[in-house]
Amino acid sequence: MTQTALVLIVGGLAVFVGAIVQGSVGFGLGLVAAPVLTMLDHSLMPAAIQVVNMTLPLFTLAVEWRKVDWRGVAFGVLGRVPGGLVGAVIVVYISVYTRGVFVGVMVLLAVALTAWAISVPRNAVTVAAAGFVSGVTGTATGVGGPPIALVYQNAKGPQIRATLAMFFFLSAAQSIALLALVGEFSGRAAATGAVLIVPMVLGFLVSGPLRRYLDGGKVRVAVLVVAAVSAVALIGQSLAA
Fold it and tell me: Which residues cross the membrane (predicted)?
């Protein structure tokens, strides 16, 4: 099986699972898919996953846009802009193998923070700070959800999903622009990301019926385990290269 086929099949499955989770709880696509795609073909990352990251929120917003916390989005984006610049610098000056370790470590950190569900007060400072961290990790690795999700964890489901969706859409658009500016957004990565939109759409459609029936806690535990295992495997692969 060719590398391209592996990316589309295995990576597509990871995107499908990640879209189910993000469609259900508001985030999770990057946690599941970024380590897998990086292992399969690091040259596609983080550009390919950002194409998917920018598209998925539109489906959530089509349903729940009225629940967006616009004040929170504004402060999050305020922090996200300089964070994205830092992330772009990391992509340019850190080797692909070191970046693989960085992706793995960031995913493990995100998994730990998400699993512990640390209580973070939601105000202008914390949302802007979360936006900054999300900008760094999101642009450099494709995993930018957990910092913002932690700040909004005590909000109601529709508000979490809608607010994160708007933030992720704007964040991914910024990351794509920055990656293109520094020459890290290739046509091949863009095309791969476009193809991966198909399993993403299927995952989102599956998340609709499951959203009200599944125990979010159990689903999240399973996803975090898969993400952690993928991250550890990626770190091992990168260190052995």
Answer: 6-32, 75-94, 101-118, 124-152, 164-183, 189-207, 219-240
Instruction: Give DSSP secondary structure letters for 129-145.
Output: HHHHHHHHHHHHHS--H
Per-residue pLDDT at 215 exceeds 60: no
The Cβ-side half-sphere exposure at 23, using a 13 Å CA radius, reads: 28
| Count of Cβ atoms closer than 10 Å to residue 72 Cβ | 26
Calculate the dihedral angle through the C-alpha atoms of 205, 207, 212, 214, rounding to the nearest 10 degrees: 140
Residue 82 in contact with residue 203, Cβ under 8 Å? no
Of 195, 234, 186, 196, nearest to 44 by C-alpha is 186
- Which pTM was predicted? 0.85
Which candidate, 10, 7, 11, 27, places its Cα nearest to that of 19? Answer: 27
Asked which of 25-29, 121-125, 159-163, 177-181 is least confident by mean pLDDT, the reply is 25-29
Give dist(CA 133, CA 144) in Å, integer. 8
Which sequence spans correspond to the domains of the chain?
3-240
- Show the DSSP H helices in 66-186 as ranges: 70-93, 96-116, 124-141, 145-151, 157-181
Query: Which one, of 92, 90, 96, 85, lies nearest residue 178 by Cα?
Result: 85
Residues with Cβ within 8 Å of 172's Cβ and at least 6 positions away in sequence, in order, are 50, 51, 53, 54, 57, 138
Structure tokens at 184: 């890290």
Contact 199, 61 (CB under 8 A): no
Angle at 22 between CA 192 and CA 137, to 5 degrees: 65
